[in-house]
Amino acid sequence: MGEIRIRVAAFIVDGDQVLLVEHERDGMRYLLPPGGGVEVGETLDEAVRREVLEETGLTINVGSICVMAESIEPAGRHVLNIVFRAVAEDGVIVPGHDERLVGAAWQHRSCLTEREIFPGVGPLLDSLWDDPESPSFHYLGNIWREMIP
Q: If 0-12 CB within 10 Å is exposed, 13-18 middle and 19+ buried, where does residue 138 land?
């Protein structure tokens, strides 16, 4: 078996908008909360701040963990996804230069339930929307699913 990859992401809202990034892999485009992999020696907090800055150009204030889910593919790839509540502090959205990153933008809240979000946490994030101070934490277990064009 390979190693477990840890991916952190930020759930950032502003009014009725949520910050999402769009990636393209193998010819397929998908939306997800901004974030990425944790580097060796980096705390989760440092990683989510760095990744959001790299993908969106925004600095953030990181709050509590709201969602943790695993994605274990049948072929063996294992990703632990940790989503933090966060607040945008400063900056203008400027998408980064990652080869998979297509764009970054504020999307209407309905996007969380009407479009497929990876990992599959969109409906749960939508349910947390109205209580931004809630310390509730949700562990979803293995939510792997194959992307379908």
A: middle
CB atoms within 10 A of CB 93: 16
Structural domains in the chain, sorted by start: 4-142 (3.90.79.10)
The C-alpha R_g of the chain, in whole angstroms, comes to 14
Rounded Cα–Cα distance for residues 105 and 103 (Å): 7
User: Of 75, 81, 52, whose CA–CA distance to 142 is shortest?
Assistant: 81
Q: How far apart are CA 43 and CA 132, in angstroms?
A: 23
Q: How many CB atoms lie within 10 A of CB 141?
A: 9
8 A C-beta contact, residue 64 and residue 142: no
Using one digit for the tens of pLDDT, what is the confidence trace for 87-104?
Answer: 999 789 999 988 899 999
pLDDT digits (tens, 9 = 90+) for 48-69: 999 999 999 999 999 999 999 9
Q: What DSSP letter does each residue of 60-94 carry, written as one string?
A: EEEEEEEEEEEEE-TTS-EEEEEEEEEEEEE----
Distance (Å, rounded) from C-alpha 70 to C-alpha 111?
Answer: 22
As given in the structure block, the two tokens for residue 14 are 């502003």
